[in-house]
Amino acid sequence: MFSMAKRSLFMRASCPGTIRSAKNHRFGGWQTGGVSTEDTQNPPSDSPFHDDSSRDEARQYVLPLVVHIEKAEPPARTDALETAARAVLVMLSDERSLGEGDDEGEWARVMRDWQDARIRKVVRRARGAEWRKASALPGITVTGKEAEVRVFPPVPLDGWPKELAKLQVSGTDLDDPAEPGAPEAIAPVLWLNPDLGMSAGKAMAQAGHGAQLAWWELTEPERAAWRETGFALAVRTADPAAWHGLTRSGLPVVRDAGFTEIAPGSCTVVADHPALRARVAGG
Fold it and tell me: Are the CB atoms for 188 and 274 separated by under 8 Å?
């Protein structure tokens, strides 16, 4: 799935509360925009970013996500976060994003280029005519309970389509009209850092990173099973008392590059998928 020659550097991270020992920590931390992982002697063979090539030597791409926000009826925050995370998974698993050579999908090459460089995601908002124009571009619209998020094939950092470039990044401050409630015990959960204040757009990107980390660590049968559920998942803010333990659990941890809103190296999301949870528990 990934270009072996351009997989990125495994490097030491400085996420508070994260175990660095290869013996005790299977999964790495993830730094948004500038991705990094915890050091390990035996990284998972199917996960990217495990060789000594530099992310910065590759051309930089961005995965655009556009959330539909009408003034009169904005989606609930949690619904938007979960829909964005699912949109990333839908894009990663779409047949147009997969394959090589004669079996290469139309988006496969740019998806590889994006994943071989820094894995950037940018969330923008659109309404009315803006949304209709964005929806006309090649991409995939994913719907939640009420939220709509359209994900597009990666674009060069300096080469956004004009229909997307003019969309606003700010203004995605959404609220939940009611508490979302506890997730199902068997559901994949993307746990948000309770100590960080993030805009909805920033949190949507972080949730997307967490979902992608979990996807990379799953086996093909585990991925297929998740896809059959429509990528069911929950996004919840972790209990402050549980957050430290989550970052030390051995589950994938998202770490932010600090380009926007929060400090570099901040742990933002822990990806808690049942298959990964069982793997960690089994040692």
Answer: yes
Cβ pair 225, 215 in contact under 8 A: no
Tens-of-pLDDT digits for all 283 residues of the chain?
433 222 222 222 345 433 222 223 233 333 344 333 332 223 333 434 333 345 556 678 999 999 999 999 999 999 999 999 999 999 999 999 999 988 999 999 999 999 887 788 999 999 999 999 999 999 999 999 999 999 999 999 889 999 999 998 876 679 999 999 999 888 999 999 999 888 899 999 999 999 999 999 999 999 999 999 999 999 999 999 999 999 999 999 998 766 667 777 789 999 999 999 999 988 6
Q: Which residues contact 224 (CB under 8 A, 6 or more apart)?
A: none
Taking residue 132's Cβ as centre, other Cβ atoms within 10 Å add up to: 12
Strands (E), the chain: 29-32, 61-68, 120-126, 140-143, 148-151, 155-156, 189-192, 234-237, 253-256, 267-272
pTM of the model: 0.83
Q: Report how far residue 9's alpha carbon sits from residue 44's, in angstroms, rounded to the nearest whole number.
A: 14
> What is the residue whose two structure tokens read 């990173």?
209
Contact status, residue 118 vs residue 53, Cβ threshold 8 Å: no
Are the CB atoms for 169 and 124 separated by under 8 Å? yes
b/e code 62-80 from CB counts within 10 Å (16+ = b): bbbbbbbbeeeebbbbbbb
End-to-end C-alpha distance for the chain, whole angstroms:
27
